[in-house]
Design goal:
By secondary structure, this protein is an alpha/beta fold. The chain has eleven helices and twelve strands. It is rod-shaped.
């Protein structure tokens, strides 16, 4: 039965005859005899339903169709030749796609470091990045829509059996406050980072800008515990789901916010970051992924994350 699709062998034969314009020389180039080469070209012409060569006793010329077809066939053969090295690169995690989500806090400390190292080691891997809260990331992971996520611990227990978690870094909470509030609490009148600690008690009357608990229960509870340990009950002023928005609300005088220390890299006019005088818990950021589905690309990213986790300093 006549095949309806040419095979790669026939296409290579076509290129050889087209370039040599002589069946005998093409056969010698292909290390074969001329009769099977002629048969293969006739079979290719029958499969395609067009004549490729105008033959005489002394010459072989390409038909107009063959002239236009030749560059396309060369591209197909080049792509086919690239399949093996591509497959090997994919198997080694040197090519492919990595879909990574991250909490907004990671964008100001951890994420740029990881992406820089990963891009240096695996320049052919295409990254798909998305910012999302920890709870959204877990749902996306379980649904198979992302490969991994940078989240704030702890993870919701309902999916613990399906997911693996690698802690990366721990950092203390600091307080972001409007510049005028910082001045009243004994700080400088300049924006940015101030080393002078401040007590939560000095800010008891300031509204608190915070993540909604339904979206980040672990983070929310840590902040509430800080106030509780100081014998205070915070007055919730505004809620926002992105750190950039929280800091912007602080700069607008809407309140103060407890944020991870790395967020001081997010500079806003009218905002001062200061350490707390009270002992505060550390916020832990880690990598989470589906235990049963670790692609070579993801394995490479996990290795880089492990290296960062091993060298991460103590909080503070």
């Amino acid at each position: 039965m006549l095949s309806t699709t040419p095979d790669l062998r026939q296409l290579r034969y076509f290129v050889a005859v087209a370039e040599e314009k002589h069946f005998g020389r093409a056969a010698a180039r292909l290390s074969m005899t001329q009769p099977p080469l002629s048969q293969a070209i006739r079979a290719l012409e029958e499969t395609l339903g067009v004549a490729l060569f105008a033959r005489t006793r002394r010459t072989v010329e390409l038909t107009p169709v063959a002239v236009d077809l030749l560059p396309e066939v060369r591209r197909l053969l080049a792509a086919a030749d690239g399949l093996r090295p591509l497959a090997q690169s994919l198997a080694r995690g040197e090519a492919g796609v990595l879909s990574l989500a991250f909490v907004s806090t990671a964008d100001y400390g951890l994420l740029p470091l990881l992406l820089r190292d990963f891009g240096t080691r695996y320049p052919r891997v295409r990254l798909q990045l998305a910012e999302a809260t920890s709870d959204v990331q877990v749902d996306e992971l379980v649904a198979g829509r992302i490969d991994a996520g940078l989240v704030i611990a702890p993870l919701p227990p309902r999916h613990a059996a399906q997911l693996s978690y690698l802690p990366i870094a721990r950092e203390p909470l600091v307080i972001a406050m409007p510049t005028e509030v910082s001045v009243r609490a004994g700080g400088p009148d300049a924006d940015g980072w101030c080393d002078t600690p401040v007590s939560l008690a000095d800010l008891a009357d300031a509204p608190l800008v915070v993540f909604p608990r339904r979206l980040a229960p672990g983070f929310y509870d840590i902040i509430m515990d800080c106030y509780g340990a100081a014998g205070l009950t915070p007055r919730i002023g505004q809620e926002a789901i992105q750190m950039q928005t929280i800091v912007s609300l602080v700069s607008a005088g809407m309140g103060v916010a407890l944020v991870p220390q790395s967020l001081r890299n997010l500079r806003r006019t009218g905002v001062v970051y200061r350490p707390l005088r009270e002992a505060v818990p550390a916020i832990e950021t880690g990598l989470v992924w589906r235990t049963a589905q670790v692609s070579p690309v993801l394995a490479g990213f996990i290795d880089i994350v492990r290296a960062h986790a091993a060298t991460a300093g103590p909080p503070g």
